Each structure stands twice: as structure tokens, then as C-alpha cells.
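hi! just following up on the protien thing from before. the input was this:
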Amino acid sequence: MAEFWTSSGYHLLERGRSGHLGLTDDYLRAFLMRAELHPIEESCEMERAVHDDLMSDPCRAIEESRLETIADADAAENYRFLLAFRDVLVAAGSLEAGYLDIVRADGIALPPIFLDRLAHAILRNILDGSEDPVRVRAAELLFREQRVTLQDSAVMVADAETVDAHASGRNLGSLGQLAAQAGTELASVELDVMTLANAGQYWERSDLFDMVLDLRFTAPGLDALARCLEAWIAHFLDIKTRIQPAPSITDERWSWHIGLDAEASKLLDALYQGDDVGEDRMRRLISLFVLEFDNPAQMAPAIAGRPVYLGMAMSQSGVLRLKPQNILVNLPLASAG
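and the predicted 3d structure came back as:
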């Protein structure tokens, strides 16, 4: 059985009988070790004291009066975010329940990185025991921003952070960064496109996020993403669905759609309303999917048995950032109908 995504923190968590993940002190300590929270040489005494207290007991109450005396206002704000995040997870009882509480609530405002970190760990849990590297690579789209390149009929997605690291020379060390800053042309670095021949290499480099996935229609990558979305819904909502890529929406009784990202949400709304959508904007639509419930009785009665259309689209700058919470909060469920 292949190991993958050590960076998710999955090994620091406890898996309960329900299959969901229980919060641990070590998981919270991993956040405290991040650059946004770890004290630096210029950190004041109070910042160091708060950090030491939380490292000793991550669930310790930290008074607002202490945070107000931290000299670095950004550091103090980062601690407020972490404490709010921690308190939600403690109250919820599991990472999955905490994730749902955050995305369903109006009053919990956290930076996207917290949702991404939760999705990373939860997907590692969902995919535990997987032997399909294509499916695991596709799951990266649910918590890591991608850069999209259209090549003939191919739709290539590469991890945005990895691409940016190559472009800046960070991956080449200090000399590479100096060369990039000086405008010196760096040796081109081509990321490997995942194929059936090299997919097995994914396991040993999963935390590098450096393999390119082809999401063209009928490609294994797009089907793998559909399976990930099915598993995501089932894990959170205990609802079985069937999701298949679709070339277009020709349904005259189109009744429900969900954008898997902000761009797709706006685009599908415009198409549903019959607005004129320009060719350039339509080119940003990477894929459509048809979602069907195994049990139509679990759907809102008004549209029970009807398909739900999903879409994902890149921004004008070629960035794809999925928001997997959209599918959890916007499915037309009977309990919400």
C-alpha cells in the first residue's frame, strides 16, 4: 500500500470509528510551526510567550488582552485566526464536522489556507489505501491552485505554487533566485505530464506536487476527478452519487447547477439565464459534469430525479481554484428543501 501526502498531517490525526478524523494536539502544533506563526528574531516577548504556551498546550485559552500586546499586528491576527479555527474543530468533534461548520456558517471568516489544509487532510483520509495515482493527483485540485495550459485538445493543469517556484528560480536555490531577479534566462524546467507509463512515480514525489494532469474530455484525469467528487460527497453527506463528464448541457429542463469555482459559478448562472457569453469566456470553461443521485428521494422534491450540472472554469489569467465546499452546501437536498 503506497504512502502519500505526508504534508497533509494525516499521520498526526486520529481516525474514529465513523471514519472521520479527530483533532490532536500534534496536528495543531504543526500549524504553530508554520512561518506565519513561528516566532522570528524580531518577535516580541509576548509573541514568544503565546507561542510557547500553545506549543505546550495547543488547546490552552489565550486572552485577547495578550494578543493586543503583541507588537506585530499581523502576527496577532494570525493567532486570532488559528484560535478561531481550533475552537471550531474542538467544538465540532472532528475535522469533517468542523469543515462543514465553517462552510455553512456566515460568521466564521477564515483565510482560505485553513480550508485547504482541512481538505488536504480529509482527502488523505478519504483516499487512504488508494492504488490509483491518477485519482490521488486529481484530488490535489480540491485543495491546491492550478495553472491551466490549453494545448490543441489537451487541458494541462500544473500546481500553481510549483510553477511559480520554477519561474522565480526558488526551486534552483539561491543562485537560481539571483539569476531570476537579474533577468537572466534560467534553464527551462519541464514538469512531467502524468501518463500510464509514469503514473507510478507519483507515490514517491506526492509531496512535491510536480506532475501535470491532462483534464481533456474522456481523459483518465477528468474521470478520476469525478470519482474524487463522488467520494467527497459520500464522505461528508453519506449520499451516493454518479458523476460523469459531459461535453455540453442540452437539457431543456435544466433546473440545477453548481459551479465548482467562482468563475464557473458566474458562467453557469449566465448560461442558465440565457445571457450572451462571449467566445473568450466560454474558452475558460474547462469541463462540465452531470451528477445524479443514486436515491432521488434524497433530493429536494421539486427536482427529484433531475440531473445536477457541475462546471469548472479557469480565470482570465489561466488559474483554476476549485472550491469543493460549493458542492457540499449547494446540492439540492431533501432536508434543505
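The first strand starts at residue 14 and ends at 15.
Residues 6-126 form one domain.
cheers
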